[in-house]
């Protein structure tokens, strides 16, 4: 399963994603659900729509890949600061866990 996580709508986090859609068959896109008026966001959103994939707002999704579990933990509310709207996720495997916070401050 090809899952793309777009943490938040700043250019340094989504600017290269249209090229990812061109290179891969993305099945699912998860983002914070927070849009932006920038041209970079508009290109990203157009690429999501053109891909024809399953779009999901971050809301507690969980996937299991072999011995690994990937869980979307947040955001659980909408913040004014785009960084704080970053998708937060945890990857757990037999050897430990990793927390991915985008640019969320806490």
Précis, in short:
The protein is an alpha/beta fold.
Which radius of gyration do the C-alpha atoms yield? Answer: 14 Å
User: How much helix, percentage-wise, in residues?
Assistant: 10-25%
Average pLDDT taken over every residue: 96
Largest sheet: 4 strands, antiparallel
Residue share in β-strands:
25-35%
Strand order of the largest sheet: 4-5-6-7
Describe the structure.
This protein has 106 residues and is α/β, with parallel strands linked by helices. 23% of the residues lie in helices and 32% in strands. The chain contains 3 helices and 7 strands; from the N terminus they run βααβαβββββ. The strands form 2 sheets. A 4-stranded antiparallel beta sheet has the order 4-5-6-7, with no helix packed on it. It has a 3-stranded parallel beta sheet with strand order 1-2-3, with no helix packed on it. The relative contact order is 0.22.
How would the blueprint of this fold be written?
Elements: E1 3-6, H1 11-14, H2 17-23, E2 28-31, H3 39-51, E3 54-57, E4 62-65, E5 68-74, E6 88-93, E7 96-100
Parallel strand pairs: 1-2, 2-3
Antiparallel strand pairs: 4-5, 5-6, 6-7
Keywords:
alpha/beta; three-stranded parallel β-sheet; 106 residues; four-stranded antiparallel β-sheet; 23% helix
